[in-house]
Amino acid sequence: QVRLVESGGGLVQAGGSLRLSCAASGLAFGSYAMGWYRQAPGKERELVAAISSGGITNYADSVKGRFTISRDNTKNTVSLQMNSLKPEDTAVYYCRAAAGYAHWGQGTQVTVSS
Question: Measured between alpha carbons, how far is 14 from 29 in angstroms, rounded to an integer?
Answer without folding.
Answer: 33
